[in-house]
Amino acid sequence: MDIGRFHICIEKFSSASVFCQKLPAVCLNGYSTLLAPANEVLIPQELLSSKTVWTPDRELGQYEDLVARVTNFHNADKGFMVLDGDVFDVPIRKDIVHRVVRWQLAKRQQGTHSTKTISEVSGTGRKPYKQKGTGRARHGTLRGPQFRGGATMHGPKPRSHAIKLQKKVRRLGLKIALSARTAEGKLLIFDDLEVPSHKTKNIVQYISQMEGMKKLRLLHSSMDT
């Protein structure tokens, strides 16, 4: 039976196709790709033994299902989970990520900037001096943009900076981001978030023990709620 290629990485998120099963320590940290015939079981019997699994390099973005290790804050083995290849093994496209990030940042802008027009600037509407005979340039108001403290012409007004982006592109951007994090080994799947104490310093201590962890985002599945 063709076992397929088995690749190992590490990360943090939960996916749809849930498969949690206690397995021996054949793959203690990470993700693996698994190719099996349609009429065979998802995890071949050979992988349930205690022998070391070969971990060759593989080409990313092949839409292959990934077998991921499930753990917790104590780094205990909680079984394995199958991650859908249509979400966690998508080809990386920087142009899609750029469009999604630009859409997010534009939508995040408050757009509360505002400048005063000539009708909004405080001041008298009286003509500063007569039209002729002074040798100076003619003016009808001191609230014009050419004067200090005067109006701002064509300045920004409160508005929305949001741009439109198709839902398919948004979803694809999220899939690419998850696939990139999975390929980098930065996705961890936790069985639970139970800690002895929920004081902030204890949680910071657990997170600081994770190797190479600079930023953390917790994503909770609502499947059990």
UniProtKB/TrEMBL annotation:
Protein name stated in the entry: Large ribosomal subunit protein uL4m
Xref: InterPro entries: Ribosomal_uL4 (IPR002136), Ribosomal_uL4-like (IPR013005), Ribosomal_uL4_dom_sf (IPR023574)
Lineage: Eukaryota, Viridiplantae, Streptophyta, Embryophyta, Tracheophyta
Keywords for this protein: Ribonucleoprotein, Ribosomal protein
NCBIfam families to which the protein is assigned, alphabetical: rplD_bact
Any one cellular-component term (Gene Ontology): ribonucleoprotein complex
Molecular function (Gene Ontology), one example: structural constituent of ribosome
SUPFAM superfamilies in the record: Ribosomal protein L4
Family: Belongs to the universal ribosomal protein uL4 family.
Region (Disordered): 114-161
Biased composition (Basic residues): 127-141
PANTHER family: 50S RIBOSOMAL PROTEIN L4, LARGE RIBOSOMAL SUBUNIT PROTEIN UL4M
Biological process terms in GO annotation: translation
